């Protein structure tokens, strides 16, 4: 585990010392005698190291360059010159004079900035400051002030501010896979299989014990990816060994990791899963919400907003804090190109009525009768599934899928369907609803959101294909496995 998160003073001091000579570069960070550890230990730098193949010096240069781009124009230009970041050269590649701004000595760089001050502002299309720029002003106050602002941003920025875009898997729009963003949790599941759940004061021997990657968000993301979709996982993990294990697993499943928030010095969430032989389960989650979470501000970072805007579908679980859930629903509801929005309302939350204003933006709610009932204030156990679905539709949701014991009831503006379970040895299994939801999204995006009963049967079959006593994410099916369930099942009355 890494050391403490650096403070502003340490970062500022390191950057001020690095402005001398050639400025900031990956090579200088590797070899300089300047104390650069405060920069290398920045959370934004660790984020890049943990989610790319860049070394710490390369990641530090990338992070500082990206964060410097958020500064006001005058400070950005001064920092670019002082640290020789090359930002203006990148923005104006056809202006050879700009390259002269990055001389090997900071004194020469200051002189060139004074000479190019007016042309640079003209290129940027902004008004020239009233203050007359001099080398003395740069050396005495302006550089230190601009670098101090940069240091504050480096320490306070969301780690997702520096998320690097990952290359597209294809450049041909005709063959581009549907893009899905999944917002939820990634945890380590400790799975205990028992004959029965013991009552207080008693015990029962374990049949088996295993550790696997899990979390409703991660399970859903894997399910989408195995059905051929291009999946962005939006979550948070700690920078401990379990967190690295989850990152490695997500990478092995082909998930995009640039929006996985790696929290310094924090422990990754774990869930105790007690499963009986018939597939019933009791979950005991420790989510470490005080440290491991997405924050509302994360959804306003350029990188995350850009991914949401380009997504064909967005999946939201209730595993993140209420404030984050409300904010992502608000953000996706304001996007110019509205993605398909599917919500897994699990685990149930207190005061769900605070989300009602966003229900009109939700295309489908997918959950058990219990999970969906918890969305209605004052609803009792006696409420029928029909009344439950009707109540949620009246609140503005466009579609409701109630999934129980591998079967489902679907009610939407255009569809009424009751799909019986396919033959299965288990009563239920964790991950069934994630498999259903991913399969539903797959068919909705394939058919321009116009689905029929056969598509709902396919999504229901995905639950049977996902039954497992082992790792839930590992049990998520590929399309051929779902097809096989349909092929071997009787044509009528599945069970």
UniProtKB/TrEMBL annotation:
PROSITE patterns: PFKB_KINASES_1. Keywords: Kinase, Transferase. Belongs to the carbohydrate kinase PfkB family. Gene3D superfamilies: 3.40.1190.20. InterPro entries: Carboh/pur_kinase_PfkB_CS (IPR002173), PfkB_dom (IPR011611), Ribo/fructo_kinase (IPR002139), Ribokinase-like (IPR029056). This is Carbohydrate kinase PfkB domain-containing protein. It comes from Amycolatopsis orientalis (Nocardia orientalis). It comes from the Bacteria. Residues 179-449 form the Carbohydrate kinase PfkB domain. One of its GO terms (biological process) is phosphate-containing compound metabolic process. The keyword Metal-binding does not apply. SUPFAM superfamilies: Ribokinase-like. One of its GO terms (molecular function) is kinase activity.
